[in-house]
Amino acid sequence: MSSKNLSLTTVTPAQLHDAVEKTPASGPRRGVFAIAAVATLGSLLFGYDTGVISGALPYMYMPFGAHGLGLTALEEGGISGVLLLGAAFGALFGGIMSDRWGRRHNITLLAILFFFGAVGNAISPNVWVMYIFRAILGFAVGGASATVPVYLAETAPKRIRGAIVAVDQLMIVTGQLLAFSINALIATMRGGPELTVTADPSGLLPAEYIGQTINFDTLALMQASRGGTLSTAQYHEFLSQLTVTAGNGDTWRYMIVLCSIPAIALWIGIRLMPESSRWYVAKDRLYEAIGALKRVRNEAVDGPIVDELKDIVAVHQAETASEHKGFGHVWRTPWLRKLMIVGIFLGTTNQLTGVNTVMYYAPKVLQYAGMDTSSAIIAQVANGVMSVVGSALGIWLILKFRRRQILIADVIGVGICLLTIAAVFQFMIAPYMNAQQTPPAWAAYVILGLMAVFMLIVQSSNGTIVWTMMGEIFPNNVRGVMNGTAVFCLWIVNAIVGWTFPVMIEGLGGGLTYTIYGVVNLVVAVILYRVMPETSGKSLEEIEKEMEERFS
């Protein structure tokens, strides 16, 4: 039976009831939790691919002779930055692709990109080839961020929709924790970064190390930024002159290739799941929508399918009748232009916390605090645990407190935490580095503890509130273009932070770097206090009316 026999813009309730009675399920029944388990593999991959790099980078820094990539700080930032730029465009175009070809189809394509991106990264012979595959992987990450939550929200019954979408956010940080844990396991099995130097024309390396397998930290500690005497340029010149014949620098390849496994599981699993019934309705394919809905609903607990279908069709008819505007209309309308700027600022607030400086570079920061590489990679697991705990806590917070007060309190807490990290670097670590001495071991653990508290604060409120409000404050007929623009800017700021942080901490040191981030967050808190609206307890229609009155 073809849905072309019925027009969804004019269909009557009686015709809908008749269609539901006559249309069978389009395949085997799939429980919504099974669908969530499969679809959120995309979010797990999102988390794994952004988190795995923190443990891989210390090995990539090793010379080519030790099977590393011989990275500089700028190239290190590029490895994170390129992925995030790819994610910006993945988020921008992922929604368009999802609307055109379907949520399930889009997730299937993203699984393929995740797989080839992971394998391509793992076999990259140099950093330039890696940039290409990091961009591909980034597109998949951004596409997943735009598609998976929509698929879950459109597939889940309304009684558990909020919980299912919250699980999606939880799976992202779970993916990051998984990456940190696997990094720690592989680093433990293969050992910290080690290499064999057979010749040193510069004569800087002690003679007893020549021909021996030594820890790469021995060389890294020769940098002035790590308490040594060599400037950044001198250090890289020193490394380039060494004759290195062996090493375990290829350890990073094992860390990265493992994320191809859940990509395969996602590709297989999503092909067994139904397409979104709401997408079918948007494409005027009624009978396919009914067949898909019958696969994921238990009428005994979810209510009559015909009632839900009537609601879906009513929304479709209203959207068809309304005039959806583009970016040009938003920019020409003063109150919409102001609201979009507020939305962009809200999105960038999440990234200006510096949360991803921990996700990507915590081992590097801990190394600058005096911790050895292996211990730093293992210690990153603590940040992952606190991130998961914080995300779970955030689900409770958003139900108990108002959005505005949560976010402002969060940003103030983040600023104080970052300034405390800066103080530890400046007054407890830098004096030892300046005297070319190793800082006391407890200093690095103080930094780790502050990082863990920082992750708990950020993940328990900032991310949850920002993503929730970005879905609330924009008017319905321009929500797609305005939300897409804000998310695109969020990823761009994420890329800037990821690209610049390694250069900042190497050139400015931990004290000044974290002072900058701390001050920025306190300034952000003041701006949020002045411009951020409150959306708690209001319908989307009430929010839209308030936004127009406020910004006109």
From TrEMBL:
Signal peptide: none
Any one GO CC term of the record: plasma membrane
Membrane topology: Multi-pass membrane protein
Keyword Transmembrane helix: yes
A molecular function (GO) term: transmembrane transporter activity
Protein keywords: Membrane, Transmembrane, Transmembrane helix, Transport
Name of this protein: MFS transporter
